[in-house]
Structure to design on (572 residues):
C-alpha cells in the first residue's frame, strides 16, 4: 500500500512539475485568458445635418444594434453553434468552421447589426466566451431625400458615395480599447497592473449647407417635371453666388440609402451634379463672351457678320437658328440671344486680335479664362467626390485645335460638371469673385452648431464692370425668350440655354442630346441672390434647352424666389 501511495504521489509530483515548469507558459496564458476582458470600444459614427432655416436638423442618424463576438479559446463550439444560430440568422457574417479554426484566437466577430430583442435573448443564454458589443446602424429618416448627395454606409460600416463616402474619415472617428481583469460574471474590475482603457473618439457631426425644406421641394419639382416633359433624368443645383454655398443639390431619380442594394446598378448612386462631366453646350457662351468683354475686345453692341455657317479646319460650324433676319450684320447681344455659334467663334477670334483667324493667342486666352479663372475642367474643391472634366490645352499636339476651341466657345469638345458651371456663373454675376463651392456649413459639437468661418473669394475672374455687362446680357436674353408673367416686375432674372450633342461610339449622335439651363436672379438693382442650373437627359432621346430645361428652371426659380423671401423692387 505504501508503494502504491508513493507511486501516486510520484505521479502527482511529476504532473505538477510538467504543468508548472514545462507547460508554464501555456497554462499561464489560459489563466490570463479566463481572467482578462479585452474589448474594442467602438466610436460612434458622426451624424449628418441639414439646415432648417437657421437651425441644423439631423437627416442621418444612428440606431443601436449589436455585434456578436466569440472567443474561440473559451467558447464551446457545439453549445455556441446550437444556441446562437437561430438568433443571429441572416445577421451572421462568419462560418463556424472559420471561427473555431484557430482556438488561440481571442476575438472573432460572428454577427453584425443584431437587433435589440435578439441581443437580449443572447445575453440571457450567458454563454461562456460569447459577448455582445453595442454598435450603431445608419438610419435615414427622410427616405430618399438627397440620397445621391448623402450616400450610404455599407455592411462593413464604411461610407460609400456622397457625404458618407467623401467624409468617411471624419464621420468614422477612432475606436478605443478596454483591457482589464474580470470576475466570473465577465464584469470588469478596477484592479490589476495591466489595465488599459483608451477612450473611443466619436466621429464628427457634420452640418451641410443644404436647406432641408428647399432640397425636399426641389426634388418634388424635378419629379413632377420629369413626368410632364417625359425625360427620365433631371438634375439641379441651387447656389448662393455670393459665398459659394450650395443650398440644394438634387438628382432625379434617387434611391433609398437604407436599402441601397435595391437598385438596378451602381449607376443609381452617382451624384451627376459633381461626378458626371458632360458637354454643357451653349451655357458656356456666357464664359466666352465674358472673357472677350473682360479683355476689352467685345461689347454687347459690337457687330459681326453672320453667315449662318463657317468652316474651320474643314469642320462646319452652324447655327441652330437660321432665320434670314439673323444673317448679315448682327450685334453680339443678338448672337447671345439666339445662341449663334458663329458669334461666340467671332468673340474667340477677337481675343487673338484677328477678324478671321483663331490664333494661338486666342486659344491661350480662352484657356486662361475657362480653366484657370472659371475653374472649368478641373476639381473645384467641394467636399464631395467629384470628377475633373477635361479641356484640350491650347498647344496640344493634335489636328483641329482651331475648330476644337471654336466648339469650346459653345460648350462642345470639352467636359465640365454642373457644380463647375454653377460656381463659374456665380463669379460672372457676383462682381467677378470666385468662391470654392461648399456643401459643409460647420459641425455640431455637444449639441451646439459651430459654423465655419465666413468664406472669402479665392480669385477675381473678371472685372466688376465686365460682371455688370454680363448680368445685363443674361437679363436681355431671358427677357426676349421668357413667357409673359414668368418674371414679375421688380425681379431681375437672367439665363442661358444649352443643347449639347452626345458622343456615342466616338462620334456625335444625331439621336441624343442633353439640355441645360443656367439662370440667376434676385431683386432688381441688387446682385443676384441665387444661381440655378438644370440638366435634362435620357439615353436615346433629344432634349432641348428651350423646350425642356427652361420650363424646369422656371418652376424652380419661382419656388426658390418665394422660399428665400426675395422682395421685388417697388416703384419709386
Amino acid at each position: 500500500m505504501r508503494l502504491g501511495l508513493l507511486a501516486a504521489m510520484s505521479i502527482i509530483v511529476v504532473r505538477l512539475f510538467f504543468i508548472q515548469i514545462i507547460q508554464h507558459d501555456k497554462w499561464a496564458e489560459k489563466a490570463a485568458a479566463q481572467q482578462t476582458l479585452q474589448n474594442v470600444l467602438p466610436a460612434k459614427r458622426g451624424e449628418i445635418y441639414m439646415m432648417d432655416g437657421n437651425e441644423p436638423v439631423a437627416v442621418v442618424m444612428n440606431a443601436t444594434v449589436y455585434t456578436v463576438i466569440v472567443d474561440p479559446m473559451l467558447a464551446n463550439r457545439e453549445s455556441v453553434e446550437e444556441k446562437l444560430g437561430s438568433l443571429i440568422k441572416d445577421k451572421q457574417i462568419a462560418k463556424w468552421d472559420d471561427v473555431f479554426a484557430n482556438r488561440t484566437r481571442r476575438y472573432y466577430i460572428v454577427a453584425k447589426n443584431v437587433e435589440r430583442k435578439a441581443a437580449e435573448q443572447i445575453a440571457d443564454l450567458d454563454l461562456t466566451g460569447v459577448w455582445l458589443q453595442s454598435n450603431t446602424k445608419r438610419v435615414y429618416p427622410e427616405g430618399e431625400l438627397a440620397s445621391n448627395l448623402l450616400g450610404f454606409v455599407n455592411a462593413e460600416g464604411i461610407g460609400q458615395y456622397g457625404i458618407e463616402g467623401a467624409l468617411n474619415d471624419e464621420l468614422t472617428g477612432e475606436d478605443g480599447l478596454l483591457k482589464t481583469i474580470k470576475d466570473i460574471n465577465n464584469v470588469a474590475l478596477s484592479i490589476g497592473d495591466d489595465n488599459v482603457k483608451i477612450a473611443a473618439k466619436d466621429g464628427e457631426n457634420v452640418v451641410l449647407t443644404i436647406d432641408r425644406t428647399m432640397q425636399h421641394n426641389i426634388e418634388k419639382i424635378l419629379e413632377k417635371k420629369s413626368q410632364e416633359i417625359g425625360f427620365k433624368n433631371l438634375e439641379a443645383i441651387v447656389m448662393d453666388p455670393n459665398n459659394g454655398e450650395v443650398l440644394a443639390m438634387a438628382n432625379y431619380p434617387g434611391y433609398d440609402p437604407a436599402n441601397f442594394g435595391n437598385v438596378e446598378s451602381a449607376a443609381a448612386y452617382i451624384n451627376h451634379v459633381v461626378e458626371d462631366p458632360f458637354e454643357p453646350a451653349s451655357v458656356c457662351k456666357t464664359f466666352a463672351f465674358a472673357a472677350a468683354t473682360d479683355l476689352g475686345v467685345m461689347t454687347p453692341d459690337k457687330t459681326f457678320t453672320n453667315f449662318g455657317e463657317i468652316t474651320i479646319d474643314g469642320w462646319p460650324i452652324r447655327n441652330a437658328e437660321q432665320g434670314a433676319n439673323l444673317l448679315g450684320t448682327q450685334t453680339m447681344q443678338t448672337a447671345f440671344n439666339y445662341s449663334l455659334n458663329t458669334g461666340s467663334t467671332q468673340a474667340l477670334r477677337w481675343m487673338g486680335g484677328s477678324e478671321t483667324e483663331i490664333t494661338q493667342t486666342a486659344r491661350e486666352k480662352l484657356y486662361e479664362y475657362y480653366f484657370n479663372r472659371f475653374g472649368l475642367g478641373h476639381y473645384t474643391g467641394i467636399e464631395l467626390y467629384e470628377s475633373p472634366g477635361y479641356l484640350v490645352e491650347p498647344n496640344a499636339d493634335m489636328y483641329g485645335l482651331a475648330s476644337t476651341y471654336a466648339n469650346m466657345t459653345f460648350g462642345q469638345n470639352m467636359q465640365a460638371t454642373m457644380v463647375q458651371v454653377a460656381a463659374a456663373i456665380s463669379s460672372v454675376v457676383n462682381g467677378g469673385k470666385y468662391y470654392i463651392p461648399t456643401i459643409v456649413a460647420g459641425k455640431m459639437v455637444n449639441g451646439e452648431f459651430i459654423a465655419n468661418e465666413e468664406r472669402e473669394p479665392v480669385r477675381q475672374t473678371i472685372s466688376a464692370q465686365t460682371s455688370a455687362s454680363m448680368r445685363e446680357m443674361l437679363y436681355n436674353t431671358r427677357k426676349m425668350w421668357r413667357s409673359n408673367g414668368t418674371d414679375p416686375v421688380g425681379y431681375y432674372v437672367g439665363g442661358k440655354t444649352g443643347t449639347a450633342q452626345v458622343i456615342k461610339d466616338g462620334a456625335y449622335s444625331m439621336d441624343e442630346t442633353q439640355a441645360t439651363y443656367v439662370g440667376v436672379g434676385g431683386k432688381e438693382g441688387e446682385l443676384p441672390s441665387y444661381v440655378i442650373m438644370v440638366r435634362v437627359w435620357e439615353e436615346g432621346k433629344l432634349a432641348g434647352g428651350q423646350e425642356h430645361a427652361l420650363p424646369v428652371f422656371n418652376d424652380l426659380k419661382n419656388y426658390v424666389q418665394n422660399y428665400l423671401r426675395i422682395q421685388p423692387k417697388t416703384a419709386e
